[in-house]
């Protein structure tokens, strides 16, 4: 390993170790380890299949997807920044920082609240527009719910702020529904996830007068 990469590598491991030791980790899904940086901010370190298959392509996708989400979901996206850094192999990578949302992931029962339901319907409409324009869908449920939907019943990528009932989208993950993914395995995962998401969304949509 080249010397120049060493400090980055040490910083990366030190950050993970520190977060574990200090019990700062508040969540992890299919793509990130999420830690609390302070009362108002979380950091997300990439850690998933897509990233390990191709860190550079994933970094570029996340940068591009964040831009797309900032356009379409401007109203709902939790304020998010990309902090560039090199990973342990010296490859250009990133950490995300994001506003910490004091609340809980969206559950179907929360849609009984008129404000929550109205925001959710708007998010679904925005998603249809983004899908038509970019061939990308927001990934609503997260890896755990998609995989274990019979046990995990939450829409993990939308959070409801406790005090205001405001909805936030907190995940930069989108499903690529075209052909532009960087490995066959990812293509397979996106297709599976797209189908599963459609089925799970019916459970949410199904109960709503449109
Ligand atoms: N800004 C935030 N405020 C509060 N909690 C958060 C925030 N971002 C993430 N979390 C918590 O961490 C979990 C995982 O975060 P995130 O969805 O970003 O990770 P992921 O690995 O990309 O997930 P996925 O499985 O959808 O790919 C969330 O479901 C949530 O519980
Ligand atoms: Mg998620």
How would you characterize this protein structure?
The chain is of the alpha+beta class and about 210 residues long. The protein has 2 domains: about 5-100, 2-Layer Sandwich (Phosphorylase Kinase, domain 1), CATH 3.30.200; about 105-205, no CATH class. The protein is built from 6 helices and 10 strands, in the order αβββααβββαβαβββα. The protein has helices spanning about 5-20, 50-55, 55-70, 115-135, 140-145, 185-205; strands at about 25-30, 30-40, 40-45, 80-85, 90-100, 105, 135-140, 155-160, 165-170, 175. Strands 1-2-3-5-4 form a 5-stranded antiparallel sheet, with helices on both faces. The mean pLDDT is about 90. Bound molecules: adenosine-5'-triphosphate and magnesium ion. Magnesium ion (MG) binds near residues 29 and 156. Adenosine-5'-triphosphate (ATP) binds next to β1, β2, β3, β5 and α5.
What is this structure, in a nutshell?
The protein is an alpha+beta fold. Helices cover 42% and strands 25% of the residues. A hairpin with a 3-residue loop joins strand 1 (25-28) and strand 2.
Q: Based on CA inertia axes, which overall geometry fits?
A: globular
Main β-sheet, spatial strand arrangement: 1-2-3-5-4
Structural class per helix/strand content?
A: alpha+beta
Terminus-to-terminus distance: 57 Å
Oligomer: single chain
How many beta-strand runs? 10
């Amino acid at each position: 390993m080249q010397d120049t990469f060493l400090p980055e590598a040490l910083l990366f491991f030190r950050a993970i170790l520190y977060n574990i030791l200090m019990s700062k980790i508040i969540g992890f899904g299919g793509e990130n380890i999420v830690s609390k940086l302070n009362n108002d901010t979380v950091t997300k370190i990439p850690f998933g299949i897509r990233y390990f298959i191709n860190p550079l392509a994933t970094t570029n996708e996340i940068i591009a997807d964040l831009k797309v989400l900032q356009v379409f979901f401007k109203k709902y996206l939790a304020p998010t920044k990309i902090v560039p850094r090199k990973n342990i192999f010296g490859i250009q990578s990133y950490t995300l920082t994001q506003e910490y949302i004091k609340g809980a992931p969206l559950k179907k029962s929360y849609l009984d609240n008129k404000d929550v339901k109205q925001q959710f319907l708007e998010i679904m409409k925005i998603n249809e527009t983004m899908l038509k324009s970019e061939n990308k869908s927001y990934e609503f449920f997260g890896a755990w719910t998609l995989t274990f939907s019979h046990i995990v019943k939450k829409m993990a990528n939308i959070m409801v702020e406790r005090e205001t009932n405001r909805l936030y989208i907190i995940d930069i993950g989108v499903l690529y529904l075209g052909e532009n993914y960087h490995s066959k395995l990812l293509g397979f995962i996106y297709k599976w996830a797209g189908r599963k998401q459609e089925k799970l969304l019916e459970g949410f949509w199904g109960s709503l007068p449109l």
